[in-house]
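Narrative summary of target 7.
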Amino acid sequence: MAEPALKIVEETQQGRWRRVCDRLRAELGEEVYTSWFQSLELMEVTAGRARLSVPTRFLRSWITEHFGRHLVQALATEFPGVVDAAVELRSSARAALAPAKSFAASTPKSGGAPRAAGSPGPRETPRPTFAHRPADGAAALGSPLDRRMTFSTFVVGQPNQLAFAAARKVADAEPGAPAPFNPLYVHASVGMGKTHMLQAIAHAASEVGRRVVYLTAERFMYGFVQALKAHTAIAFKEKLRAIDLLVIDDVQFLQGRTMEAEFCHTLNALIDSGKQIVIAADRPAAELESLEERVRSRLLGGLSVTIGAPTETVRMKILEIRVAQARREHSAPDVPRDVLAHVARLLATNGRDLEGAANRLAAHSALAGQPLTLAQAEAAIADLVRTAEPKRVKIEDIQKTVAMQYSVSRADLMSARRNAAVVKPRQIAMFLAKELTLRSLPEIGRRFGGRDHTTVLHAVRKIGELAKPAGPLCEEIERLRRLILE
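Modeled conformation, tokenized:
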């Protein structure tokens, strides 16, 4: 007879667990859910205690520390009487490898997490896999893969055709064959399918026998820091450089000189030995201002491809696929094609909004018990309809505009000169950089001649006071804002 830890959960419990997952997705958002809960599985619920499992210690620790209260509350809605939950580490044999970490409903911590998302695939109770060969120990380095994110579920159209072709060529290369594009650099704004494409590459390459590691930038940094603490940094590097294909997502989040140096050494070692590298970010490599020039130069040395916003035809295909999947899950009536076409025209931002729209359309149709009308569909997705995204502002643009307005040069703004004719525009440029970009104070300081973050903070506070309504700089700052954002 199977041990209690390996008991198969009853079908009714599995249905409840799917509703718990839907609740977590709605409460925490698709990005947080995809990053941290996608591999979480329910084992059993007994005596007011739920037992769950995840594939890695890192996921177990993060969920326990940051989402304990959310998880217990969501479980309690579908499993009355649940007041505690334990997250265990599972192996391929589904045996408990370590003592469970548990938490009760009073767990104080909760919160968000870094994003790692792309164009999502079919919705089902997932069990992510690792596209690695365990023989060399590299599997422990990687982030979990979503088995739904494959090339077969990736919708191809004009905006992503070149990127898709390059991705397939990289993924289909035979073990030991020369790297076709090295590195392959994929960039696109949020929700365009970068993560889906990278995970599809990892899945396909592992299927032909290549040793693959898929990492987010956050996971790369975490692994390296843990290796330093455990005095196993050399082993960490050796394992990472013994693979055939390294896939790194969201490289724009890479921070710290030590981390950048290690990342650059890893790139050089793998490229020099003929190993393939695939990297994704939310902007072109030349605009990764947080990275050193030598790292950006290395990224620019390969093939750079972009994924554009999906056309209406692509959006329609994505909606049809996602709605069909959601309908099966919700047992909902069919959504009329003219309603889907209307939604595809309205949601012109990204694939993630289409995923949310598909779920809502299916859910509303199931609740109504009949196909939706156009008016009902518009009401269901009202908050997803957005205006066009604002212009992405670069610090260089701010410096050029401010320098031109005050008759100084960009070199003056980054120099050590302290005369009033330079200090004032420099402080204004720092203030606008903090206001109009997502750059941190240290990053802004570095872009202004390597200044300390306290210098930037002083400038931001000083100009902020002077730029208040009726302040002496109010009109000047407003005019500069308009020039920069035009």
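Residues 312-330 form the longest helix (19 residues).
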